[in-house]
Design brief:
mainly alpha, 70% helix
Length: 191
């Protein structure tokens, strides 16, 4: 009776691939989070918000058009790091031939347009206090992450990097949309 084949655990070897976060990731993460949260200053006591109908339109425009370049550059900087990781894994022989063939690639304008449309979808249910709004946001993010299932479900270093980059990109978009929705909610209650 032959012994079963044993695949060595190479995760420790993969962990040696050092890809620093890079200054662009740090800059866009901090700057984007602060800028995305900036409209929350309107929620401070005594701060006058925009006049109606701008109390709804201004936060939506903020979420869409300020959030667009911020989330774009945040996403690009994360994926630059993932590209370096991928190259290191290929060079070290730690990326399976199947994973090498299934490089997902990126079309940068697709996530930009999705974000442009999703931020109002996050802001309006939050701002209008729609029942189930938070569940909608969670399901939407779940659907987006499920689209990358083939890449990140393998549990490899590269797959986890893709998964966590997607989560971070969604988090930035959620910041812009939910903060804008909170401003809308307070502005409508004050009106």
């Amino acid at each position: 009776m032959s012994e079963p084949a044993v695949t060595p655990d190479r995760s420790a070897d993969q962990a040696r691939i050092a890809v620093p976060q890079g200054p662009r990731v740090l800059f866009w993460g901090i700057f984007g989070s602060l800028l995305g949260s900036a409209p929350a200053l309107l929620l401070l006591p005594g701060v006058q918000g925009p006049a109606a109908p701008w109390n709804v339109l201004a936060p939506l425009l903020w979420a869409c058009f300020v959030g667009w370049p911020i989330t774009h550059y945040w996403s690009a900087s994360l994926h630059d790091r993932i590209t370096l990781l991928r190259k290191g894994l290929i060079t070290g022989g730690w990326l399976s031939p199947e994973e090498q063939k299934q490089y997902p690639g990126r079309v940068p304008w697709v996530p930009a347009w999705i974000g442009l449309f999703e931020r109002p979808f996050f802001a309006l249910p939050t701002g209008l206090d729609v029942h189930g709004g938070a569940a909608f946001i969670g399901v939407w993010i779940g659907i987006k992450l499920a689209g990358g299932w083939q890449v990140w479900s393998r549990g490899s270093t590269y797959g986890r990097a893709i998964l966590f980059a997607g989560i971070l990109e969604n988090a930035m978009s959620v910041i812009f949309g939910v903060v804008a929705g909170c401003v809308i909610r307070v502005a409508l209650k004050a009106a």
